[in-house]
Amino acid sequence: MYKIVDTTLRDGEQMAGVELGFDDKIEFAKIIDSKDVYQIEAGTPAMGGDEKKSIEQLMGLGLKSKVSAWNRMNINDIKHSIDCRVDIVHISVPISDIQIKWKLGRDRVWVINEMKRSVYYAKEKGYEVVVGLEDASRTSTEFLMNVIREAKELGVQRVRYADTVGILYPDKIYKQIKQIKQNVDISIEFHAHNDFGMAVANSVSAVMAGAEFVDSTFGGIGERAGNCDYVKLINALDKNNNSI
Question: Domain named Pyruvate carboxyltransferase: which ranges (predicted)?
Answer without folding.
Answer: 2-244
